[in-house]
């Protein structure tokens, strides 16, 4: 995880420069509708923090998007294990995984609205976007397991539980970390997009849509900033739990 963060190479001076550019462009346009200044966004954000509906909206969206992610994590791992064991299952799931990777998320959202209520839409869409990432990564990790270690385990009749813990899991964990890192970003992008289109009452997506309808650019930027912060915190917590779990298995 440290290597991944290092590769992003985000520096405070770079962030400050982009904030300065944002401020200068805002001053040049001189229109809060076209582009509000960073200072006004921060002021509006502090105003939102004091509202109870602000926290309720975050909790509403967090529950559903996190639920979709963890369902995809569980289902992706289980189906990857079955696919590694049975070629027929791998071949059966291949078209679905390909469709999930290639079809635009907006198409899935519109189709899902025919079958599901808007309240459960973010769960389904988050699951649908994350599942192929977790499934593919875990499957690759299982398929890349050292064959010589597996042969040694077979020769010495090592129990299946020990094989999973000491052979498969160390091999799978790097793939799972990479899958989770990508999936965590996807689940928030797709989940919020589903809420913006479906507009379930009390969600972050509904607040974004309202800001757009009323041309409230300060609200739009403030809620976007909230999404970024919550997404980063959620990713940090999940990856930290994954690291702790990996160490516990060692």
List the helices and strands and how they pair.
Layout: H1 2-8, H2 12-29, H3 38-49, H4 52-85, H5 87-102, H6 105-115, H7 121-143, H8 147-155, H9 160-198, H10 204-213, H11 217-249
Helix pairs in contact: 3-11, 4-5, 4-7, 4-9, 5-7, 6-7, 6-9, 7-9, 9-10, 9-11, 10-11
Alpha-carbon distance between the termini?
A: 17 Å
The description of the largest β-sheet is: none
Taken in chain order, the helices and strands follow as HHHHHHHHHHH
Helix content: over 70%
Q: Which stretches are low in confidence, meaning pLDDT under 50 for 5 or more residues running?
A: 1-7
Morphology: elongated
**Number of β-strand runs:** 0
Rg estimate, integer Å: 22 Å
Which range does the strand content fall in? under 5%
Structural class: mainly alpha
Please count the helical segments: 11
How much is the average pLDDT?
A: 86
């Amino acid at each position: 995880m440290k290597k991944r963060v290092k590769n992003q190479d985000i520096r405070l001076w770079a962030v400050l420069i982009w904030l300065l550019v944002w401020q200068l462009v805002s001053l040049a346009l001189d229109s809060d509708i076209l582009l509000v200044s960073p200072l006004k966004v921060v002021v509006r954000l502090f105003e939102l923090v004091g509202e109870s509906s602000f926290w309720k909206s975050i909790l509403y969206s967090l529950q559903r998007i996190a639920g979709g992610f963890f369902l995809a994590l569980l289902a992706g791992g289980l189906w990857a294990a079955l696919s590694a064991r049975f070629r027929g299952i791998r071949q059966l799931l291949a078209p679905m995984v390909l469709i999930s990777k290639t079809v635009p998320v907006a198409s899935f959202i519109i189709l899902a609205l025919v079958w599901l209520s808007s309240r459960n839409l973010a769960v389904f869409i988050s699951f649908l976007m994350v599942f192929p990432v977790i499934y593919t990564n875990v499957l690759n990790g299982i398929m890349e397991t050292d064959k010589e270690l597996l042969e040694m385990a077979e020769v010495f009749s090592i129990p299946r539980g020990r094989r999973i813990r000491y052979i498969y899991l160390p091999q799978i964990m790097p793939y799972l970390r990479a899958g989770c890192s990508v999936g965590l970003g996807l689940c928030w992008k797709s989940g919020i997009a589903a809420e913006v289109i479906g507009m379930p009452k009390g969600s972050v997506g509904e607040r974004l849509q309202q800001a757009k309808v009323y041309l409230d650019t300060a609200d739009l930027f403030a809620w976007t900033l909230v999404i970024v912060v919550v997404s980063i915190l959620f990713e940090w917590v999940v990856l930290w739990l994954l690291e702790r779990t990996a160490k516990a298995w060692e």
